[in-house]
């Protein structure tokens, strides 16, 4: 099981999710037990002090909501941490930043007006769901041949919540598409949740709150 820390960017700072309601997202400091600041570089450093993570997921919330961009901050992270890989979701069909070896685009279905072919490329697909409803063009669900190898199952209403991941959805996806590498996103609370995900064949999970509140410790991560 690979744990991928989440960096949500809003108004120049890293924010902590709250039940998927982006209007309620607030800077991670002082909410976080591991961060002493909310600047992106400081938060990545805090995560690395907890565990030797190799991959991070970044959601540029301003870009996703079409009210700005964190392009400069993202490029600075890529330059500062050249040995890390950053998955970038900026709401577009491709990231609006220059291609770099340690940046990979994430295409989220909630932001796309129509489905298009991502197979064979470097992009990661995020299948976005909210209240048990698939978001975006229905073609993303119908044309599964468009899917790349790595697919995030993002349950937005569970992000930053305490209800646990949507194991039923993830199990169904895993059974129907055994050749895809699914990444759980939304609701992971602790090590037990990660165990349950592993039991149904999920190989990775995006996590933020459980790292910030101490429910997932460095020792937990070493023993996964």
From TrEMBL:
<protein>
    <recommendedName>
        <fullName>Histidine biosynthesis protein</fullName>
    </recommendedName>
</protein>
<dbReference type="GO" id="GO:0003949">
    <property type="term" value="F:1-(5-phosphoribosyl)-5-[(5-phosphoribosylamino)methylideneamino]imidazole-4-carboxamide isomerase activity"/>
</dbReference>
<keyword id="KW-0368">Histidine biosynthesis</keyword>
<comment type="pathway">
    <text>Amino-acid biosynthesis.</text>
</comment>
<dbReference type="InterPro" id="IPR006062">
    <property type="entry name" value="His_biosynth"/>
</dbReference>
<dbReference type="GO" id="GO:0000105">
    <property type="term" value="P:L-histidine biosynthetic process"/>
</dbReference>
<dbReference type="InterPro" id="IPR044524">
    <property type="entry name" value="Isoase_HisA-like"/>
</dbReference>
<dbReference type="GO" id="GO:0005737">
    <property type="term" value="C:cytoplasm"/>
</dbReference>
<dbReference type="InterPro" id="IPR011060">
    <property type="entry name" value="RibuloseP-bd_barrel"/>
</dbReference>
<comment type="similarity">
    <text>Belongs to the HisA/HisF family.</text>
</comment>
<dbReference type="GO" id="GO:0000162">
    <property type="term" value="P:L-tryptophan biosynthetic process"/>
</dbReference>
<keyword id="KW-0028">Amino-acid biosynthesis</keyword>
<dbReference type="Pfam" id="PF00977">
    <property type="entry name" value="His_biosynth"/>
</dbReference>
<dbReference type="InterPro" id="IPR013785">
    <property type="entry name" value="Aldolase_TIM"/>
</dbReference>
């Amino acid at each position: 099981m690979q744990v991928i820390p989440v960096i949500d960017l809003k108004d120049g700072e890293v924010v902590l999710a709250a039940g998927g309601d982006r209007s309620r997202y607030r800077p991670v400091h002082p909410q976080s037990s591991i961060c002493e600041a909310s600047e992106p570089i400081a938060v990545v450093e805090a995560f690395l002090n907890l565990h030797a993570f190799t991959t991070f997921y970044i959601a540029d919330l301003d870009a996703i909501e079409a009210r700005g961009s964190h392009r400069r901050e993202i490029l600075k992270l890529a330059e500062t941490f050249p040995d890390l890989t950053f998955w970038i979701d900026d709401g577009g069909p491709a990231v609006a930043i220059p291609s770099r070896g340690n940046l990979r685009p994430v295409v989220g279905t909630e932001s796309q007006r129509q489905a298009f072919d991502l197979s064979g490329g470097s992009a990661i697909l995020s299948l976005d769901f909210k209240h048990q409803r698939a978001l975006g063009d229905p073609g993303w669900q119908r044309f599964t041949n468009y899917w790349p190898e790595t697919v995030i199952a993002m349950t937005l209403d569970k992000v930053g919540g305490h209800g646990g991941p949507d194991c039923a959805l993830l199990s169904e996806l895993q059974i129907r598409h055994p050749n895809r590498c699914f990444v759980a996103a939304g609701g992971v609370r602790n090590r037990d949740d990660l165990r349950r995900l592993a039991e149904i064949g999920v190989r990775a999970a995006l996590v933020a709150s459980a790292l910030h509140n101490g429910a997932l410790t460095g020792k937990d991560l070493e023993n996964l």
